[in-house]
Design goal:
Elements: E1 6-9, H1 12-22, H2 31-53, E2 66-71, E3 76-81, H3 88-96, H4 103-112, H5 116-124, E4 137-145, E5 152-157, E6 162-168, E7 174-181, H6 196-206, E8 214-224, E9 227-236, H7 253-264, E10 272-278, E11 284-290, E12 306-311, E13 314-317, E14 332-337, H8 346-351, H9 353-376, H10 379-392, H11 395-398, H12 403-409, E15 411-414, E16 417-423, H13 424-430, E17 437-442, H14 446-450, H15 456-460, E18 466-468, H16 473-480, E19 482-483, E20 486-490, H17 504-516, H18 518-527, E21 532-537, E22 546-549, H19 557-565, E23 575-579, H20 584-596, H21 600-616, H22 624-638
Parallel strand pairs: 2-8, 12-14, 17-18, 17-20, 21-23
Antiparallel strand pairs: 1-6, 2-3, 3-7, 4-5, 4-7, 5-6, 8-9, 10-11, 11-14, 12-13, 15-16, 15-18, 19-20, 22-23
Helix pairs in contact: 1-4, 9-10, 9-12
Length: about 650
Amino acid sequence: MSSQAETVEFQAEARQLLQLMVHSIYSNKDTFLRELISNASDALDKLRLASFRDKDLGVDISDPHIRLEPDVERRTLTVRDNGIGMSREEVVDLIGTIAKSGTAELLRELKQTQAGAAAQELIGQFGLGFYSSFMVADKVTLVTRRAGEETATRWESTGEGTYTIETIDKAPQGTAVTLHLKAADDEDSLHDYTRTGTLREIVKRYSDFISWPVRMDVQRTVTEGETTRTVTETETLNSMKALWARPKAEVGEDEYREFYKHISHDWADPLETIHMRAEGTFEYQALLFIPSHAPMDLFMRDAKRGVQLYVKRVFIMEDCEDLMPEYLRFVKGVVDAQDLSLNVSREILQKDRHIQMMRKRLVKRVLSTVKEMRDAEDDRYRTFWGQFGQAVKEGLVSDPDNQEAILEIASFDSTADAERQTTLRQYIERMKDDQENIYYLTGPSRSKVENSPHMEAFRDKGIEVLLLTDPVDEMWVDAVGEFDGKRFQSIAKGQVDLSEEDDAQEGTERAQQREDFADLLSWMGTTLQDDVKEVRLSSRLTSSPACIVGDAQDMTPTLEKMYRAMGQEVPRVKRILELNPDHPLVGEMRRAYQEHGADEGLTESAELVYGMALLAEGGEVREPARLVSLMANRLARAL
């Protein structure tokens, strides 16, 4: 007996998203059918996998299929499958709400996006295919029964603000989505989704490769002698040929693109396609795709990897983490192995040498493909690195075996060009003859790094500096150490001496300055000992009075913050205050110390110099109120 239907309000984000979709976000409404068929295909994959793992599930998998049931009189289209089905809780979670992180951000971007194509790309990142039904339907009814359960669930909505849901007794296993189509005069005659010809053409174009039969009853006129009659036949609309198993020469670019959209639920075309086959002692086929834009959950903890595992054309696992490292989690595709067991589990995969061999080869192929794009110097590489570069650089820390290959494809902002990034190879080609290090500076943004006092001497001497502004940059530079024999050197750590080695006069002058400032430096080191480990003269400053630097092996302040944000306690690192001996302020402090010794005014000056140096690099002052008070008092006395 059915339970009473319950009326429920959509989650606020889901309601807003529905309205955006209904009002012409998509330029091609035919794609709703691709999304529904794709969902049905996933349900059939999951049922077969569940039947392998649970022999007592008690489900019939003798004829898994998808059916299209158009009804001209009622003006409905039903997409039906006999797959895994859904429980009531799953219906509410997957359809009544949008249980994904970042939905609010998606909505903000959608509202700001005017172009239809850009909006499609944004919404494709969430794979919300079911919602596309409301582009063509005034009302959608869903009836589903999960495999192994006795009762079913009926869900219905007009896509406005609410939906109804109830438990019903009788329904076949699987899911049926019935679209109550919009009035015929609202549709182009070529997009009448009750016409068998229209449906046949859409399935052929978008879903021909689906590995399950997509069937539809069609009426045909049969003539026997002088008698003509109409018969109903069941027609399979798709070829069911796995693209990855076909030779490359037999697969068209359109087929690749539609297959990518099927497995990724992305509405944009892929940036690059990788079709590979390995034969010999261990055979497998792989069809991988590099997307053209990053998913919105790329840096979220619950982000899934996009490679599916098949064994002898049988779907095994949706997001096989062992086939692709985390730093390449954006890669989508299918890997079909010939020599694995159908009962393989995640635990077995982690130890299987064949899986490890496949992973190694797949990673090398992805990285070599990106290198080919980079060597071609085309816009595809710039798109790739702009979208995925930050994630790929994680591999410099986590994948030492491919560290060199990742460095070869990496690009970085640089002082050499404000518009275009540079590769490390290009940086080395531009290095000065006597330059031994690859210089870099990390920071939160290009503007802050470029305006750092640490840059002054490098700018004056025309020495190129890499500007590293991604959080991961703080970690990989220490882990990597060098590239092509050139050591990475932070211009904010350790001693930096840019003077000419053969300039004896300059060396003599610097030695004299160290002697002249020795007393002041010693006194300031003692005065500021709670904040700094040393005060010394600087060779990297030309116009600023002071800067803060770290010892060569010290952890940077940004890295300190990152560890603390992750809940790890790390000791506070004292850094070094460097003074510019040629700056008037520093010169006046030396004169005052020699003539009057250490008084309250000089102590305040030392605190101010340290505070200004900290602020100049974007750091945080421990006692902002005191610094402001000291500056206000000095300004008052100056006026």
